[in-house]
Amino acid sequence: MIDPKELKYTKDDEWVRFDGDDAYIGITDYAQSELGDLVFVNLPEVGDAVFAGEPLGDVESVKAVADVFCPVSGEVLEINEDLLDDAALINNDPYGAWFIKVGNITDQVEFLTADEYDEYRG
Amino acid sequence: MKLIFEKSIPGRGQDIFPACDVPVKLPAAPLREKKAHLPEISENEMGRHYTALAKRAHGVNDGFYPLGSCTMKHNPRINEKMASLPGFAKLHPLQPAHTVQGAHELIADLEKFLCEITGMAGVTFQPAAGAHGEFTGLLLIKAYHTDRGDTERNEIIVPDAAHGTNPASATMAGYKTIVIKSNENGTVDIDDLKAHLGPKTAGLMLTNPNTVGLFDPNIMEITKLVHEAGGLCYYDGANLNAVIGIVRPADIGFDVIHMNLHKTFSTPHGGGGPGSGPCAYKDFLAPFAPGLVCKDGENYVRAEKSIGNMTGFYGNFLVMVKAYTYLLTIGKEVYTLAQNAVLNANYMQEKLKDIYPIAFDTTCMHEFVIGLDPIYRKTHVSALDVAKALLDYGIHPPTIYFPLIVHEALMIEPTETETKETLDEAITAFREIYDRIFSAPESVQMAPQTTPVLRLDDTKAAREPHLRYTFE
Amino acid sequence: MGTFIPNTKEEQLKMLNEIGYKDFDDLFKVIPDAAKVKGELNLPDGLSEIEVDRKVEGLAAKNVVFRSIFRGAGAYNHYVPSAVDAIANKEEFVTAYTPYQAEISQGILQSIFEYQTMIAEITGMDIANASMYDGASAAAEACWMCKDRKHSTIYVSGALDERILTVINTYSFGRGSKVVVIPAKDGVTDKDALAKALADDAEAACFLMQYPNFYGIVEDAEELCKITQDAGAKFIMYCHPLALGALKSPGEIGADIAVGEGQPLGLGLEFGGPYLGFLSTRQQYMRQIPGRLIGETVDTRGDRGFVLTIQAREQHIRREKASSNICSNEAWCALRAGIYLSTIGAEGYEKVAALCSSKAHYMADELEKIGMKKCFKGEFWNEFATTCPDADKLLAALEAKGILGGLKLCCGCCDAGCDTDCILWCCTELNSKEDIDEVIAIAKEVF
Fold first, then answer.
1. Which residue of chain B has the CA closest to A40?
2. CATH topology assigned to domain C82-340
3. DSSP helix/strand/coil, B243
């Protein structure tokens, strides 16, 4: 799968899509393929504060669990409840399956471009 | 095969209870309206159901069971016979002390034996399993620091190779887990340990021999460093059978230990429990011990600053009877258990190391770890595949994907009760599988083929959880 | 003496040499000398099987096995059908490990799946786990399940067995959570005190009550449930599993979690263990459940099979973030419970509940006739507390006849304001009318 050019990436394998002042966050195709079939995600609640570089939740496969790190600091505006019912969406469409939408952003980690990320994980 | 509910026919059943010989009276309280669906089945049909289930299970008595870290050794019959004596099995836990003197004597004797084996001063039998023993030991450590007013200590140091129960127990005891790295030899990285010791260190949890089957050569320096930092040393006794009678944890600087009676002391695992995880401690921790102790034969008393209770009564007493029976049988020659356990493991390691990559190629203790990663990268045959292939040879697979520090790990613990012939058969099976990995890899990836069910879909089970039978 | 080590000394030496070691000292030189025990441990000489048998039977013989038991208080003398021992003692069940390798463990996995279903059924809840250590530790874990970032205080009824409370307190010492006991009044939870305490505490996580409670009384669980849930806390019921053959189930009452001591389901008294903690709950709390869960799935042929599932909750994967550290549980005891419930069946389940209740009511009436009055007026199932002019004297007289009488309650532990001793009595289906009449006759002689 080709990593979309319009997104920003982290070395922890998350992607960010900025939408005005807000940000949608998910995990990359590389991350989902390394983790294998995902069976569950743990997400924060709407209204929670999240912090750049700290876990926002985690993803579970059958035999492993991995933290998902938040690339920005801010407030959770929305969570993708569809993922709570069907974690397979992340495997099937990693760049469509956003985890949370964050607003009131005050800080962010250093991002990679799609090309830089491809090279990093290449 | 059908579930027992699918064999149930309304109106069938078994006559167990007599007619009521007093007037029938239920409490004048809200009563149950919805009947519980329980099987209605004859004794014969029920017996066959469970016999069919038994045939679909694999115990130590069915064949070789080299499940690393779990010590699946022989469970002597005499243990079971002794535990079923009415003089033990029919005792009410709240009987007057003078009517259970034999039980008290047994507990006291077993405590003495375990103190001698560990070098500790006292034992609590309250914990019902190994993880429960870890939790107990950490609470003793916490009570000790708290009692001294040393309340800043909130960190427990755990090596990265530790069983998952160690960090999970630390969390239950309210501690933060500090993970330290293993060095290239698979043992504790002393520099990393030093870097993490400090005024916040409550203690260190260490499995020894560790989870890759190695005895840490720096063990006495490690415990000394932890003590110097003001922490206590916890010995995870899961692998005690490797050193029993040869090394005593208290002598090498440990303050508290749990043992698994269902591993080291031969009591059966029962498909996952009950176990028993007695926790032994040095003298200075005795005031914090949980449970009630009968010292004078009459009265039950609680230790002065007891942490409370871990279980409702005295722990898993009948498991204690089995372990006691075992120790009476073995006696002072307990070291012979360690000898044969270590010999068997090294024998298998030596006979496999020319083809399978050994994670840490040195003399191991009671178990060793194969790191299949190089083979996996070449062939896409995984540790899981090798494990499943062993099933077709009637061998229970080793522990897989543990410890986490070894990729594609297969952790093999033959135990001391296996013969050379059994080891040789297993070695042959491992070598045949190795050949198949290269000649017919798909045959390994498709294994097992001879079991009642083939590979099961774990992903489906977790994505669409069905945790019970649904009645129409 | 006996070691269960099969290899002879000669074979061992041959194996050692074959892999390059001179002898055992050579093999064990990886252990620093300073760490080794000097000399032999101070343990007795090993014994032959006959000697061991004699020694251990001798200890068993020093204990008193009562022929008639009227004591409960957490451990209950119920009948264990013959089939339970015969089936559970099959060696495939006894000597197996945790069913991690599903393909050769279908027997264990299916038996636990059936057990989970039966526990869910009797408690009226959606799902149950594969077992906990015992009732008390299950209660402590259930309280922890209710804790989240915003809710941490654990409330328990003052009519809860003190042993269970102690375990909850001990677990809480570790986790640093606050436990508040709502006092009992007339042998039952003080509802007003509960309502007030919960109203004043935005951090209330749960309230746990015992059903029937320690004094045997069937409390108004529906009202307690309503008070608790209205305050935004979770309602936990600690149940006697056989009482639920008669009483409204936790599911019908609306409880969030049901736990209890499964010992009455086919386990003996065993001097306190191994017993069986059961835990069931609603579907929505599935991921907060501690311990193992067995789930249904299919194999590559599409045939039904069972596996350990939703394991990412557990310690071997989630490590310090796991909901609990439990791994070994009481699987074999759960197997026994499954066989027990299959043996007695749907009808037997109701019958045994009625038998226990009927015997206890008969005994309470007969004791009342000789002046030993009930301490509390609440409705009871198979346990009840009465006054007694001199409990020690009566219990000694009963003991002399091979009868284990009720449990003497410590002074002031019930608030009945009795000016005499009190005894907590228990009847089960094993106490015949004749046995009960004998107790009454002895009591008459004593007083």
1. B463
2. Aspartate Aminotransferase; domain 2 (3.40.640)
3. coil
